[in-house]
Design a protein that fits this description.
By secondary structure, the protein is an alpha/beta fold. The chain folds into 2 domains: 240 residues, 4-Layer Sandwich (Metallo-beta-lactamase, Chain A), CATH 3.60.15.10; 145 residues, 3-Layer(aba) Sandwich (Rossmann fold), CATH 3.40.50.360. The protein is 36% helix and 25% strand. The protein contains 12 helices and 24 strands. The strands form 5 sheets. A 7-stranded mixed sheet has the order 1-2-7-8-9-10-11, with helices on one face. Strands 18, 19, 20, 21, 22, 23 and 24 form a 7-stranded mixed sheet that branches. Strand 22, helix 11 and strand 23 form a beta-alpha-beta unit. Helix 5 crosses helix 9, helix 6 packs antiparallel against helix 7 and helix 8 packs across helix 12. It comes from Halosquirtibacter laminarini.
Amino acid sequence: MHQVKISDDIFHVGVNDRRSERFENYWPLDKGIAYNSYLIVDEKIALLDTLERAFIDEYIDNIKNVIGDREVDYLIINHMEPDHSGAIRAIVKEFPNITFVGNKKTFPMLESFYKFTENTLEIKDGENLSLGKHNLQFHTIPMVHWPETMVTYETTTKTLFSADAFGSFGALNGGIFDDELDLSYYEEEMMRYFTNIVGKYCPHTQKALRKLDGLEIKTIAALHGPIWRSHIDMILEKYEKWSTYQSDKGVVIVYGTMYGNTEKMAETIARQLAVRGVKNVRVYDASKTHPSYIISDIFKFKGFIIGSCAYNNEMFPTVETLVNKIKHMGIKKKSLGVFGSFAWNGGGVKNLMKFAEDIKWEVVANPVEEKGSLKEDKFQQCVDLANAMADQLEAEFGA
């Protein structure tokens, strides 16, 4: 059977998942997802992370296809999340003498999830492990995006096994390497993956990037998505940009509406932004679009304008879900506008302004709130809100 080589002695033994509808039972997988795992075949054989337990049979076959009857000596655990550790029990059953390699935060999780406490090798930050011709060097990168996360750097081939860092949603459709794929197909999924999976931990990502600055990297082998060998500078630059909250010129407009009045306000704001020359305008109905897509665009663009009808004296539920998620993510450096409507009592705009106080973004104009359908005075205030946002964008990015 065909073997997928990363280099002469390093193999990709992962699988594609095009069946699951949600990642972590939350994030939509419109394009599927790849679960990557790697083998280094030397005097000693090392397996770097496992994968989701639903694919155990295929996974064991992939490993056996490379090593035949040989034993796997080490399981390097860069990340304990079950989509990468779910096959550990099956691996131990197949290779009962295997040694777990991890850091001091790895093994309490290993015991907690799978009850394994023996055959462990605890490594320290910067420590090395020789397999023969290949040398593994370990670097902890806590909270990218779990506390035990580390990366493994193979010093001979200069391959960085990067755990969840530099990963992407999207199954690998034939190609494994970045230069075998149409990267435009993965562009949105790369950012959606970063912003929703890693994005809460941007300061930790910055620390990880500075820690890895001194390594000469020729290949990045992440646990999801393409293996990077031809566009390493590109993916590193993207992580630098995303993790420092650098934005492009554009505005995300999100609204929650029951009978279309708040939606009409959103359309008015969007139209005026276009009149002002803002080309990157994204308008979302919070009841239709999953938050992961919206959050990805919030990271991407500087402006965010959010509206809600009143609902039982509160925000509309889907808007409330979104703003709570945004607060949880801790996104920074955005410009904010607020609008909404009500029928007999307020609540939507009032609570969005509480969100504005909590998030501490720059509010570009007074909130706009309408009673019932959109009328001329509030129409003009929506135009004014759009103009205030356009002015702010022009001041930062130019006309």
